[in-house]
Specification:
CATH architecture: 3-Layer(aba) Sandwich
Order of helices and strands: EHEHHHHHHHEEHEE
Number of strands: 6
Strand order of the largest sheet: 2-1-3-4
Pfam families: DSBA
Organism: Hymenobacter glacialis
CATH topology: Glutaredoxin
InterPro entries: DSBA-like_thioredoxin_dom (IPR001853), Thioredoxin-like_sf (IPR036249)
CATH superfamily: Glutaredoxin
Distance between the termini: 45 Å
Largest sheet: 4 strands, mixed
GO molecular function: oxidoreductase activity
Structural class: alpha+beta
Oligomer: single chain
Number of helices: 9
Number of domains: 1
Protein name: Disulfide bond formation protein DsbA
Length: about 230
């Protein structure tokens, strides 16, 4: 069973939603049969960070509110994150464009380390106040999940996975994604937002029940019949 998730590395609800989905998956009896695929989505693809600008000020500017209101919104988000065990450090978080980070996640997917790469980047941004828009730092973070440093640097410098990021974003437009996180189950059911684990668990059960492999028929009686080669007498 495939679950595809569109999210951005700097979307606070995306990290929270990841934890809630993971909790539901932990309690799902058929979790070993679930393939999770992460897709790129940039909330602000044209964002250009200003050196030294805080996340509070950056958010306030984006929302068109006073800086103290930006801080208040981030403090509220930190409280929500604590409910799922995440200690956001938004006072020190470094605003970044996530285009390169998404490319590293695609490289991670190429090596079977997509979820580990996604998790490492989110933790670096939200919990450790690391710059995820810097190539040198991204290469370092990649090595921490087992990616080769030279390959990571080459891929990020050459834009090897840039088109893959754009394709994810185009696909999101085609299926009507307007906000993230956005979860798609077996191309049939969608869940928008960081919903509660109980809802994710309910959807997992429903989708598995509909799409699980059907057992082979057991023949309980066999007698005379006709086939392409004639009839048995």
């Amino acid at each position: 069973m495939k679950v595809e998730i569109w999210s951005d590395v700097v979307c606070p609800f995306c990290y929270i939603g990841k934890r809630k989905f993971e909790k539901a998956l932990e309690g799902f009896a058929h979790r070993d049969e679930v393939e999770v695929v992460w897709h790129s989505f940039q909330l602000t693809p044209d964002f250009v960070p200003i050196p030294g600008e805080s996340l509070h000020d950056s958010l306030a500017k984006k929302k068109g509110v006073a800086p103290e209101e930006g801080r208040r919104m981030n403090e509220h988000m930190s409280g929500v994150a604590k409910e799922v065990g995440l200690n956001y450090d938004l006072d020190n978080a470094i605003p970044a464009n996530t285009f390169l980070a998404h490319q590293l996640i695609h490289l991670g997917a190429h090596h079977g380390k997509q979820d580990a790469t996604k998790e490492r980047l989110m933790a670096a941004y939200y919990l450790e106040a690391q710059n995820i828009g810097d190539i040198d730092n991204l290469v370092k973070l990649g090595t921490e999940v087992g990616l080769d440093a030279a390959e990571s640097r080459q891929a990020l410098t050459a834009g090897t996975y840039a088109e893959a990021v754009r394709l994810d974003e185009y696909h999101a437009q085609q299926i009507g994604v307007r906000g993230v996180p956005f979860f798609v189950f077996e191309d049939k059911y969608a869940v928008s937002g960081a919903q509660q684990p109980e809802l994710f668990a309910e959807v997992l059960e429903k989708v598995y029940d509909e799409f699980k492999p059907k057992p082979a028929l057991t023949v309980v009686a066999d007698s005379n019949a006709c086939g392409p080669d004639g009839c048995e007498i």
